[in-house]
Design goal:
176 residues, mainly alpha, 3 strands, 69% helix
């Protein structure tokens, strides 16, 4: 996923300023890191250089000038190509939970590992409750889908934590 493709997807709704694109991104993807304004404008510059986005107008409404951007025909074609392309599984899985569990075992043995898993599980469950509330309040299908994706990942993490806890207990029973 690239920032540029996300911005082009938002521009598919119509011409917009960078400020509006940032706001929409943050609203549509509540589980993602908020987009920085500098990131928006840098990406728009790259898209413009590729011919995928055009400056549609410049407005001044009581403040600094704002450029209004529009998706070009080439940009629309690129967006269609990108959206139709399957996202391949990552060859490397970044697993901060697994890494931290291993380091906890190295640093303090099974007791520290179990304490870490317990605290991490509580943090995951708290986040799942927050997202579930946000999902109930969501009015936009795209926001619901984004939250469902995040909830699925958090649920998978919790299942992994439960399996890890069981494996730790097996090792204690075996005397390792």
């Amino acid at each position: 996923m690239t920032t540029g493709h996300v911005l082009m997807g938002l521009l598919r709704r119509g011409q917009q300023h960078g400020y509006d694109l940032k706001r929409q991104h943050d609203e549509l993807f509540p589980t993602a890191r908020p987009m920085a304004y500098g990131q928006v404008y840098a990406a728009l510059g790259r898209l413009q250089a590729r011919g995928w986005v055009d400056e549609a107008a410049t407005e001044q409404l009581g403040g600094p000038e704002r450029t209004v951007y529009a998706l070009s025909e080439d940009g629309a074609a690129e967006l269609q190509r990108w959206a139709a392309e399957a996202e391949g599984p990552s060859p490397h899985v970044t697993n901060p939970l697994g890494i931290k569990l291993t380091v906890a075992r190295l640093a303090g043995g099974g007791d520290m590992a179990r304490a870490y898993l317990s605290g991490q599980r509580a943090a995951h469950l708290a986040r799942m409750r927050e997202l579930t509330r946000a999902k109930r309040e969501a009015r936009d299908l795209d926001v619901v889908l984004e939250i469902d994706y995040a909830l699925g990942h958090l649920d998978a993490d919790i299942r992994w934590m439960e399996d890890a806890q069981a494996r730790l207990e097996e090792k204690v029973e075996e005397g390792r």
